[in-house]
Amino acid sequence: MKSVALVTGTSTGLGIALSVQLAQQGYEVYATMRNIAKSQALLGAAKKAGVSLNLLELDVQNNETITQSVEHIMAKHGQIDLLINNAGAGCVRTTEHTTEEEVHWVVDVNFHGVVRCTKAVLPYMRRAKQGKIINIGSVGGLVGQPFSDIYCAAKFAVEGYTEALASYITPNFGVQFCCIEPGGIVTEFASNVLTQLQSKGEMPNDEYKPVFDAFLASGAGFERGDLYQTPEQVAQVVVATALKKHLPLRIRTSTWAEQFTTLKTQADIDGLKQLAIVQQTFG
Fold it and tell me: How far apart (Å, rounded) are the C-alpha atoms in residues 237 and 144?
């Protein structure tokens, strides 16, 4: 029997690469997205790779669609072996320039969406005493960066959430958790951030303007070649991790990401040392 994988945010970039590569590894893949009408790129990639995928509508901001998708998979297969919480949204704004609605949206997609999907599959994995939940985080979940205030806050939340779940669910119920931490990904994600930025107009001509201009000029925002990986390269790390018998708590996807976060990670590269201390303290 094939292992069953549920992947969110598969209309573009990393989600497409994840779905295809998991299928190539023999998974029964349920690729989900908010708007099924945007599935052409996914289906085209699957056809090119010679794999078949199952497509479901799932909006990580809508509990009803999440429940329906999970119940559909369980009714058909009786199991979900792997959940990859990949759906995400970027935001490049200062706190002072970010509206309350934007804050809610970024946190809701990047963090609450992870919680909703995890909560939906967890009872089934817990009862099965097995399963893997991989959250696509970011180096921005370990290191705060300019003009990514709210995005980094949401990704920091994903880190804490993943670590807390692993501290008691893994040893007691066998469900494993991991947070994958890419640097930049050459994908529509960055383009969408730029589009969002442009739709809001240029940075207001205030005290932040020269700081923001210097940020863009550095290339750290969107053009650094050593920073960015392709979706396929990141997906290779994610899929290789999913295939491991025992998951690390966290893992970076590139040399740049390792170097960038080294002061946060060098004492505990995969997060398992700290996790062991927590489990010993409260176990």
Answer: 23
Q: Per-residue pLDDT for 224 more than 80?
A: no
Of the two residues 141 and 198, the one the predictor is more confident about is: 141
Sorted by where each begins, the domain ranges of the chain are 4-282
DSSP letter string over 22-48? HHHTT-EEEEEES-GGG-HHHHHHHHH
Three-class SS of 95-111: CCCCCHHHHHHHHHHHH
- Give the angle subtended at the CA of 21 by the CAs of 17 and 24, to the nearest 5°: 150
With 80 as the cut, is the pLDDT of residue 70 above it?
yes
Kindly give, in sequence order, each residue whose CB lies less than 8 Å from that of residue 59, ignoring residues fewer than 6 positions away.
34, 65, 66
CATH topology of domain 4-282: Rossmann fold (3.40.50)
Alpha helices in the chain (DSSP H): 13-24, 40-49, 63-77, 100-107, 113-128, 149-173, 188-199, 209-217, 231-242, 255-260, 262-265, 272-282
Distance CA 220, CA 211 (A): 13
Q: Is the pLDDT of residue 79 over 90?
A: yes
Catalytic residues: 151
pLDDT for 200 equals: 54
Cβ neighbors of 128 (< 8 A, separation 6 or more) are 79
Q: What is the CA radius of gyration of the chain?
A: 19
Residue 194 has pLDDT above 70, yes or no: no
Mean pLDDT of the 23-51 span: 97
